[in-house]
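As described in the Methods, two query proteins were run sequentially through the folding procedure within a single session, without resetting any intermediate state between them. The first query and its resulting structure tokens are shown here.
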Amino acid sequence: MLLEIGKNIKRLRLESGLTQRLLAYRLRVSVQAVSKWERGAAYPDITLLPQIAMLFGVSIDRLFHDNDKKEIRLSDASQ
């Protein structure tokens, strides 16, 4: 589950049209930190999760779970 958070942050960042540099600036972290999150080499500090979620307009839960994949799995299971 934690491995998904980096992928989801990257997806949300790209959907929002933000660069790693701009995301880092808005969260007051280094560009290297954002890069590590997205690669799964590190995870954001728990105190940053509300800020990240608010920035992207999603729930904290959505940072951890790829809702799109869940919907695909449910529709595939019903066939």
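Immediately afterward, the second query was submitted; its sequence and tokens are:
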Amino acid sequence: MRILIPVDGSVYSRNAINFVAARRQLIGDDLKVDLLNVQDVVPEDYDDDVIFEAVDPYTKAASKKVFEKLGPYIDCSGLKVEKKAIAGPVGDTIVAEAKKNGDDLVVMGTHGRSGFSGLFLGSVSIRVLSKIDRPVLLLRKETPVIKEGLRVGLCVDDLKHSMASASLIAEQIKFFGIDPVIEVIHVKTQEVVDQNAVEPVLKRLADAGLSSKVVELEGIASEEIVKHADGHLDLLVMGSHGYGNFTSAVLGSTTSRVAAKSSLPILVVKA
């Protein structure tokens, strides 16, 4: 498994490194980690090599400070990391590097709770989520390090996204730990939901040798998911539409509301 962690030296970067490090022994030698620092010093509309050469000394100096600040955490993590610094638009550069490296997952820190989901995610996260073609794990500042089996809530919405989420869990089960507890969460609501998504998801998990249980909730989907997850789960897995400039368009309304209200890390999966 190959994981990309965008880093800027903040507590969110340290949290992401520590979270992934806790999965290291579970995943084993297959785990490779790319640490990427992007210096946003080049306007998006520039495509001139001279500009990049002109800012290169600044990029190197600024990135060096970031990696030096993270050095003790990287050393203690035991992770095999490749460090890279690039100048360019942050969100687009993260997306391009994930594709170039063949990363299976991007792990990013987020700003924290907010009543407005756009503020919760920040412009970089929204940009990444709107363009990337692979899963993104959004971590909070307060996300605890969990060393073994995660308690996972797989939120069932439409069949396409739900099956993509189930397949990710099945294919990367080591990331979720030893004997993870998997809850397939279905909310009965007046909102448009594919009622036939639960059984295929259960079958996909069972075919991979994974046990799971269905949790039926009723009411407003985002509110019920947040209420149930608090104190019961370690991680939520939810679908993403993957387009648009606003968070609700990128994530879908239920996912964006959960992201704004829940303190749990959220693994966003595109179909």
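Residues 49-53, 112-120 have pLDDT under 50 and may be disordered. We note this only descriptively and draw no conclusion about the first query from it.
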